[in-house]
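Structure ticket #2291
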Amino acid sequence: MYTTVNEDGVLNNYPTEPKVYFAEYPAIWEQRKYVVQGIFAISFITAVVLVAFAAS
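Resolution: structure written out below.
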């Protein structure tokens, strides 16, 4: 963190910025994990919608 002082004596604190890097393409096991998470999410939303229709 570094601090600057303007001509009126006001302090301005600035945080350190993180290093920028390029994202890497997900590995095959990460892609499979995303597919499984998607299947669980779709089934959960479907169940919630079906319960809502049954309750109404």
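Closing remark: Residues 2-55 form one domain.
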